[in-house]
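Consider the following input, taken from an annotated entry for Bifunctional ligase/repressor BirA (Pectinatus cerevisiiphilus).
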Amino acid sequence: CVIKYYKTVSSTNNAAKLLAQQDAREGTIVVSEEQGNGKGRLSRCWFSPAQKGIWCSLILRPPFLPQEAPKCTLMAAVSICKAIRSLTGVQVGIKWPNDILYNGKKLVGILTEMNAEMDRINYVIIGMGINVNVTVKDMPVEIRNTATSLLQIIGKKVSRVRLLCAILAELENEYEIIKAAGFAPILEQWKKYSVTLGQKVKVIGINETFYGKAVDIDDYGALLVDTGEKIERALAGDVSIRP
Ligand code: BTN
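Applying the prediction step yields:
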């Protein structure tokens, strides 16, 4: 794969999008030491201090329908979860659809962006933000109670290069599995690491909010929530969930 390395960039997702529009190959990765304007989901900012984390975006051109793009997010979550667990032993879990948590605090965020033409995906950008060596002092006060880092959990620095290599190896492996055997094996692993299934959740959508128990995830990666009256389907991107 091709790795594009930057000292600083406004957002690796935006840089990757430009490359994808210029026909960059599948597997191209943009990595930056720092982001001036890192993007989170739901128009939030993503705090991305220099040399303290892995701020990167991967370009894929999967043979999926546009409505299957959330599979990429789940695949990335499983891959990152496995890489962190095997490299550091930290037993992280996945909160649907795209957060990796430890003790209820956010360690990783994933922002997937898609471009489709004629009902086929043209490219998917999987943006990954991993708080590796971010100290409490580095963090803006407003995220200190909800965010964490590997340094804060383990008490010592983790090599960002080793972790990124482990993540990319897992991603490549999972992507090959999807292409050869379909999405079921990924879904199975995702469920194993999930901290959302079985929990009571509040689903906040654009037009409606509902409460219920998260009971399953379907083949498209949508969360199924039992409200007591019916099973609601929550699609990533459209909703945020709270305990
Ligand atoms: C979230 O809100 O949880 C998603 C955060 C995604 C952050 C990453 S950092 C690398 C990539 N570039 C961005 O601008 N955002 C993603």
